Amino acid sequence: MNILEKAQQAFIDSDEKAFLSATFDELWPITRSISGPGIEESLAVFKRHMPIQIEKVATGTKVFDWVTPQEWHFKRAVLTAPDGSIICDSNDSNLHVLNYSTSIDRKLELDELLPHLYSLPNLPAAIPYVTSYYKKNWGFCISDQKKKTLTAGTYHAKIESDFVDGGIPFGQCLLPGESSKEILLSSYLCHPSLANNELSGPLVLLALYRRIQKWPKRRYSYRFLLNPETIGALCFLHTHGQTLSQNIISGMVLTCLGGPVEQLRYKASRNNDSLLDKVASAITHKTLSIHEPLDYELYSPLGGSDERQYGSPGFNLPVSQIARTCYGNYDGYHNSLDNKAFMDINSLIKSVDSIEQFLLYAEVCGKPINLAPFGEPQLGPRGLYPNINAASTRANSDDKEVDGRTRLHHILQLLSLADGQHDLFYIAEKCQCSIDELKLVVELLEQHQLMSY
Description:
The chain is α/β, with parallel strands linked by helices.
């Protein structure tokens, strides 16, 4: 059974771990970049499992302060030593070529070659991931161990690549909910053969799509987006920014969600006041709980991923970021040590579990709306108020519930404050109860068609 057949069989069997593992194995060897056949092949893999619509913004388009570059069509890179031995070959690792490298077929002396060789002296066994998207250059990436063995002589550098007009692609789909208000789930897909820093985010996004699709009820709509980092997010905003701005209630960029760290790290949106920010804050302060601890950080434009584009001043969209083993905080960041074993499929499943629970809280923690706001709705016929008014029923929430009217008081407070202006955190504070207690009341009122979002 080949890799594709394994992925398809796992998808049919609904074995999430096997499915994610097989999909990883299919994506791993593809030479991705911000454009070209590699990213388009990768998007096609996801399109088999979720109904993403793939779009392109044409080469040469002015996108805000950027201009979309030509597509990079790469074939192979081989560096040969003076004795004819192969020093590095992109067929062995697609990290061996400078990403977006121009073509070259030249004989060079070692002193000419060295400025075009990239290595990591502090990690001598690792092959670095290096890019030059917006300035033409050529180069090879090799381990520092290998680099130090090179001796004087004539080397043959051969890189086969072309630049052609095409476009920057991205893929998106929408799972509609009861409300047109959207929660955006976004990840980037452009790095070749990096596990935690590249494939963990898209794979968690795919797993979340599969789970959210099966929810019996979706209060909000969920938009799923895969794009090349930075330029792809800008292209998406260039094309769909106005629609997104009108509909988005909150969003989250998924990145670096594998690895050994035992808690998630949440980076808030720019204004630190979105629905997901409030849920994350409550989890951090342990008034809500998910499957593991959560570390909360304020927004910063220094480092990070596409939340910087969504949170730029012109858009200022309520998009946060969530990660586990964060970029820059582990030895394998942007090099060949970031592999499947380090990422760990089990770690991805743990991230999916926690983020799904996070989103289920977001589903009810928004601003509910009373669907019978003109006067108090008649609760008795719905079994939500005692039908006998007597001294003996003044401790009842309904004809059977003797609870000191706790639930009834929560119902009345909730209906009074559910005007689309107050979120559930505010209402729970007024009710002096937990979100989990109030969540049950929300679900009860929804069943009786008295509340929505």
